[in-house]
## 1
Amino acid sequence: GSAARHIAIDLGASGGRVALGAVEGGRLSFDILHRFPNRAVPLGASLYWNMLELWREIRHGLRIASGQGPVASIGVTTWGVDYALFDADALTIGMVHSHRDRRTEGVIDTLDETMPRADLYQATGVQFLPINTLPQLLAAKRASPDLFSRATRFLMLPDLIHYWLCGVVACEHTNASTTQLYDPVRRDWSNTVLTAFGIPRAMFPNLVEPGTILGPLLPAIAADTGLVGTIVIAPATHDTASAIAAIPAEAGEDWAYISSGTWCLAGIERPRPLISEAARRANITNEQGIAGTTRLLKNTSGLFILQECLRAWGDPPIEPILQDAAALCSDVAIDPTEPEFAHPGVTMPDRILRWCAACGVVLDPTPAVITRAVLRGLAASVAASLAEIDQVADHHTNRIHIVGGGSRIDLLCQAIADCTNATVIAGPVEATTAGNLLVQAASIGVIAPGAIRPVMRATADLRRFIPTTR
Ligand code: LFR
């Protein structure tokens, strides 16, 4: 057959991929045609994304895809919260900062000078994190008032790539909902927040639903990549939203998810936002999912800490380290939410050893010992997040679906099962790519909108981890 084929471009904070896939016989198949590294670039006191290099890699991936025949559509997902600004000529001004740039240090402690925390939470339903777009924009305004005053347009990063591909300016809801500038009840930019913080409403483009057809590729891009007749479709552009859309869950409400990549997102799906005093105190976030659903979740640090350790150790193969770590029996666990673990650097293993020492635990400085403490810390932290969410949302989690890179790590999956006393169902690893492709397929009518999870159940190879009673 000749099923419609789709390209998913997914940029992650540690690497990007271009995948080509199609739905046939109720199953999704895809190949990752091109993988490329991504790493924020330090310059002076700042930390930037190299958007032009990513754009070069994306075009390279598109050329490989076009060599394999016609492609119906393309969509882009990236991590949340980061953004680009345009001047009047639609050129990006300044560089694109990483949310880990230290320019936001201390900013969230000053937000309540402008708007009481309870009001800001009421307006946005978003957890207070230094990485959010709101503190980033305030830091930008403070550090570069002139540049900020010349900004005419604000775009999230998937929206920026879509604009480069097809020339259409639009912000897609799921990623907009990560900014702390968006009202998840009205499903629009929050005038209350923008006005209070002096951020011009006119900078913010129209919002579009996941699955919106944006338009054909620009002629120059079609010529450059060899893609003919391909349209650009905004998927659920926030990587986490796409990953959750593709969770291979059976019907029922007793499940939770963990999307485990550089960050770790743990939560449940709900029909509408839950914005309450208890949710605010538990620092729970309301992000948008597909079909108007809410992703009620907590964001905590994820594999980033381990990725930085591996880098410090000279990027050795991870498998032997994981095996050694699993064979140990220490219960030591770091607290991955400690601010000192939030920034990149080859000092990460030392920071971990120092933190443990300060808690009175002397760790052997070996990769296996440190890795075990990190993974057990991640498991304990997601278990705490899920317990809080269950309590605040009056939910009971019996099964936990884990997707993303962490779903490959048995030690992590088993530790989560043990810490939560719930069955952990692991896979798929590439949930974001799958969700991206399937929202495109649904958008052009290849599958019904409600068929995404059934297709994933038919497709995914899942592994189960049962809690060990000790
Ligand atoms: C995951 C993710 C999280 C977001 C964090 C920063 O990749 O998108 O959902 O909170 O990155 O953008």
Note: The first strand starts at residue 5 and ends at 11.
## 2
Amino acid sequence: MSVVALGESLGLLVASRIGRLELVPTMDLGFGGAESNVAIGLARLGVPTTWMGRLGDDALGRLIERQLRAEGVGVATTLDPAAPTALMLKERPAAGASSVVYYRAGSAGSRLAPEHLDLAAIGEARILHVTGITAALGEAPRAALDAAIDAAHAAGALVSFDVNHRSRLWSHAVAAPEYRAIAARADVVFAGEDEAELLTGEREPEAQARALVALGAAQAVVKLGADGALGLVDGELVRQAAFPVHAVDTVGAGDAFVAGYLAELLEGAPLAERLRTAAACGAVACTAPGDWEAAPDRAAIARLLGG
Ligand code: ADP
């Protein structure tokens, strides 16, 4: 196994309206979650990947497990008989901003604890990928995240950390020191501009990357949306422009980007190449709706890069 992605995966009910009780013309059932999005992104790039987390022993949990496996992702989860799978209701309106409602507290994913980890799978991985969402879900998931990092360190695996701050889950004041502590134990840190500012207090991406490295991670990547990204490794600073695409849904771009970066890291590619593939993955992921559905395979990246 090359990568273990630890964290949440939750059901997604996407309707053309949520809120008032009324007839809605469309309703789709799917799933998503930052870490399982990254796992699918990696699998599509040909990287053997396992998603590790907790699902409820219910129809939604079994659906997610089946679909992850159908995407070529290994699943290291125990189905929790006592807690349901987390669910997110998402509105996809014809125009305007969408609303999102979560059921998370008390979900199986929120009860992830150290004893649920498959330490053998982490021991075999070359990279463990974690996000701040897992830390924000509560004390037990936070402890699981630390135990997973311990196992990765013991096995000599790299630790990849995408901050993925969710202000609804965690206030800035509580989250910032926790993220800094995780970053200090990671080898690669990914952060959006706002997240990097939250961790470092810096406002400018280059200063943010330097401050992230000063926290202890050898590699820092600041994701800048349609402005591209910036990476810093061993004092080498590389800027990567975004690839121009017709973006219809940018949700999941960051996860596809991370998958592209980690896939190239495993290949031993230099920083510029890691960022280029990552940006290509992020760009392609924007071209169709969905959280992971548009994550590219190698052929789709080649098409984008080829012109
Ligand atoms: P996140 O989804 O974590 O907030 P970003 O929005 O920064 O992350 O997106 C990650 C990467 O995806 C960016 O660094 C960029 O390379 C690519 N990307 C994001 N939005 C666009 C866009 N509109 N057009 C092209 N590429 C994009």
Note: Residues 3-9+33-82+110-305 form a domain with the UDP-N-acetylmuramoyl-L-alanine:D-glutamate ligase fold (CATH 3.40.1190.20).
## 3
Amino acid sequence: DDILLEVEHLKTYFYLGKDKVAKAVDDVSFAIKRGETVALVGESGSGKSATSLSIMGLVPSPGKIVSGSIKLNGKELTRLSEKEMNNVRGRDIAMIFQEPMTSLDPLFPIGDQIAESLLRHKKLKKKEAKELAIELLKKVGFVRAEKMMKEYPHQLSGGMRQRVMIAIAMACNPQLLIADEPTTALDVTIQAQILDLMMDVKEEFDSAILLITHDLGVVAETADRVLVMYGGQIVEEGTVEEIFQQPKHPYTKGLLKSMPSLEMEVERLDAIPGSVPPSHQFPVGCRFADRCKFAMEICQKENPALFQTNGGRKVRCHLYESEEGEHE
Ligand code: SF4
Ligand code: MG
């Protein structure tokens, strides 16, 4: 079986007060195969980060997983104790965030932090952990890795810190790497280097990646498959070729249009007007209806199901319901 991660009917809600429930993740299902790079795309507020935090078992209060299942190698994660989940994190699943400064401890040198991560998950002697840490720093491109071991986080640039985070993430050879906007805070040339590095490291360690981003340029360069998220739900799923060459959902089409072309990377060309509806007030109908130029009467009344066309594409839109296929 080559399925590594299987998420089924996941609902992660935030209880914000009396009668105010934010349905950040609202019945999301998808799978990731071993070694695959899957991109989860959408604007901020669409539920991407809540999805990744759910997989990591790190949903902050007042949020919680209300229902659904998250299986890694067939093992249910949502029922693990905090201690068991701690072992899964770092050993089986590792995460890289947008701003590495918040995940690095400012008080300790880089070397100690990598070694600590190694010691927590592997049976190593201190000296072995240190040697392995140096090796990892070399792998993420630090030529003078011994010197880097002694540096403190504030002494490094944003790009260097992100390299360190990748070294820490890969320290235990995780099967799944979750990268949430890993390059958003970096400037464009450094972004490209970090992405290249992530892909090299992924090859070397044979990990799968769940890449969370709003940047379709990044997706085009790295992903095998794409999940488009909107209003807490997946609205379209396809291979990277399908999504870029033949997008079906009006939201996906809008996202692609607002992507700056390579020659004209100056400004957004045709951004989608409006914004994602707040997740405590989804409309009864299609959650994109307010912003959709194809909206029909039925779109105001009924939220479409994620519809599988006979070409194997999945799309949540009433426009495609007359095509032959199955409803999920
Ligand atoms: Fe637009 Fe209707 Fe499709 Fe929603 S269901 S994306 S409103 S056409
Ligand atoms: Mg986010």
Note: The chain has two domains: 3-92+176-276, 102-173.
